[in-house]
Amino acid sequence: MDSVDSRVPPEGNSSVNTEPALVAITSSFPIKADGSEAAGSFAADLVEELSKELPVRVVAPGGASGHEAWCPGVEVFRYACPDQPLSTLRPWNPMDAWRILQVMLAGRAATEAAIAHGPVRHILALWALPCGDWARYAADKCGASYSVWTLGSDIWTLGRIPLVRARLARVLRDAERCWSDGLKLAEDTRAISGRPVEFLPSTRRISSKRSVPLKSAPPYRLLFLGRWHKNKGVDLLLDALKMLDESDWKRIEAVEICGGGPLESIVRSGVEELRAAGKPVVLRGFLDRVAAEEAFLRADWLLIPSRVESIPVVFSDAVKLGCPVIAMPVGDLPRLLDDPPCGVLSASASAEGFADAISQAVAGSAQEFAPGMAAHLKTFDLQVVARRLACM
Is 157 found in the same domain as 128? Predict the structure, then answer.
């Protein structure tokens, strides 16, 4: 959904609101609406679903600080943030340290503006740091409770830094409730915080539906949709594709690689090499919501070659659009692909293992995994997730 110009106060919102609102503080929220927002599209869908139950004020990154109307029942308080994710900035670099400080101050100021705009029912941090830190500060200031929802980057990246880990543990311990968007992630969050942590999956709203049954025989279309980042393993995917033999390629109609990110030069050169060898590889940039759903519906298999993962949002997208998965054995993917079966799991988190998994998948039937995909639908129901949070 497009937002209004943040320089113009939203019509009808010039005065302080009187109905207690949920304040959702997030580092992931659409700015450009071009598909580059990753978890941001989930956050937007979630707050829109929550707004059916109660008013929501969102604290979110933007190109500049400001206050805007997002949709009925949802207001957004923006804080200025660089395009580069905070987790990739280096605090020992003076320029990066200055950027981090600016974001921390801007985020706290936007949080103050959101809680000052009217009564607060509860504060929800998406995700633990720095959002949980802002939520804890805001809760203390306005006398409300707060809860925290953790991502893998909170626990598996920031949680490895000793001083940051201590801060993280305090934010988690002081929260009224704590969730994680992965099963293994919930276990690791409990280890850091020493408190109960519940599994709550992140999932987007899907407006399309597969109308044509999955194929039972090749040739197949394969799809990678995600950030071109080392953690997401797009470089491993390219290496795996180069390892496939001619019999494998005869079973592949096309491979679509969509997204963008820091490994762009590696991705482009790898795709050029494959195309020069006559392989049917298509390169696309970030896809907006409609284009992404169309890509899923064209595909017979979704590729998840991640080195590090919990439960990627593209997995739940695949479940809802009936697209079986070829994945690395990381995070919760082994459990999800096995019970019930909904794809092919690589034997190892390596290019060689992933090449073997692709070869196995394209030699078999995609259609046999359709019942498994359907069985996972209840787990990734956005309305169920929103209702759990609205009860806070």
Answer: yes
Report residue 65 CA to chain centroid gap. 23
Q: Provide the residue type at 182 as one letter.
A: G
Query: Global pTM?
Result: 0.84
Q: Is residue 8 part of a domain?
A: no
Handedness of CA 247, 248, 252, 254 (dihedral sign): negative
Mark out the alpha helices in 301-381 (DSSP H runs): 313-320, 333-338, 351-363, 370-375
Omega of the bond leading into 55 within 30 degrees of 0 (cis): no
Q: With 0-12 CB in 10 A as exposed, 13-18 as middle and 19+ as buried, what is 207?
A: exposed
Q: Are residues 228 and 358 in the same domain?
A: yes
- Return the CATH number at 254: 3.40.50.2000
CA–CA gap between residue 204 and residue 195 (Å, rounded): 28
How many structural domains does the chain have? 2
Q: Residue 33: which domain range? A: 21-200
Residue found by looking up tokens 């997401």 in the block: 232
- Structure confidence by residue, pLDDT tens digits, 141-196: 999 999 999 988 889 888 888 888 999 999 999 999 999 999 999 999 999 999 99
